[in-house]
Amino acid sequence: MSTLQNTTSSSIIFLLTGVPGLEAFHTWISIPFCFLYITALSGNSLILFAIVTQPSLHEPMYYFLSMLSTTDLGLSISTLVTMLGIFWFDAREISFNACLSQMFFIQLFTVMESSVLLAMAFDRFVAISSPLRYASILTDLKIVQIGVAIITRGTLIQTPLVLLLKRLSFCRSHVLHHSYCFHPDMMKLSCTDTRINSAVGLTALITTAGVDSIFIIFSYFLIIKTVLSIASPEERKKAFSTCVSHIGAVAIFYIPLVSLSFVHRFGKQAPPYVHTLIANAYLLIPPVLNPIIYSVKTKQIRRAVLKVLQPSAAKE
């Protein structure tokens, strides 16, 4: 029993996995991944910089967008080193504590992104249903409080997962199935009872993404009800257009997240590359596409980005 307990010490080394069966092509596979990381980091940094430096964007909607860009940057940075390390240098080894830290931050930023998307849905509801009271409801102090609540919520939910993993023994294979540390993946390698870990992990997923998605849907039910009560077709179209970017952000976040959770729990017979594809999409698609969606669909963001990149172009 003492031997099993020793396997939970910091001396444990996990082995990360790139793309199963395509190890010989990792260098070539790294090219699109590099492009995606560059796009995610530069796009979100640019939007964040534009919101901070442009006074015209100092409004609740764009404060929430800056939170979304911050969480996307966090997700990208959390996996950048291990993923590219595997593709470039075949650096698959990662210590137990480093793996726990990476898992914590990946899932922390995931919970934070879900919370931010819910806050943005509330923002759209207030803007459409009570436009005259919008500024008085979503004050700067209220937005700061929401931001603190989002960070606190994520930390409180993810900390038990880390503590429960530390109590496990790992006497089987130490080979993980992704290029980063993921809670269900680490849990499966344990040779001790993981029913508590599984229950807590599922509870965390339901109380975050599950609850948030229900409230987002409810928010849009109220938004649609409010918009349909507007007499003018032009005003209806304008009201709906302010929600398009947020709906896109919700879709590209929740679809890969739900797909990955289902594959881990019910897709044991699926080919390894399916797990790899969905796992990478879960982390890379939202950070890559969110800046593009908001830049294309939101005129104010597009103008602000142009002003940052080309001051002369913004005047045209």
Characterization of this structure:
- The chain is an all-alpha fold and 316 residues long.
- The protein has a single domain, classed as Up-down Bundle (Rhopdopsin 7-helix transmembrane proteins), CATH 1.20.1070.
- 76% of the residues lie in helices and 2% in strands.
- It has 13 helices and 2 strands, in the order αβααβαααααααααα.
- The chain has helices at residues 2-6, 26-53, 60-89, 96-129, 134-137, 140-166, 183-188, 195-228, 233-241, 244-266, 272-297, 299-309, 311-314, and strands spanning 13-15, 93-95.
- Strands 1-2 form a two-stranded antiparallel sheet.
- The radius of gyration is 21 Å and the shape is globular.
- Mean pLDDT is 89; it is low at 1-8.
- The chain crosses the membrane at residues 35-52, 64-89, 101-122, 143-165, 196-223, 244-267, 273-293.
- It is a multi-pass membrane protein.
- Its main location: membrane.
- Residues 43-294 form the G-protein coupled receptors family 1 profile domain.
- This is Olfactory receptor.
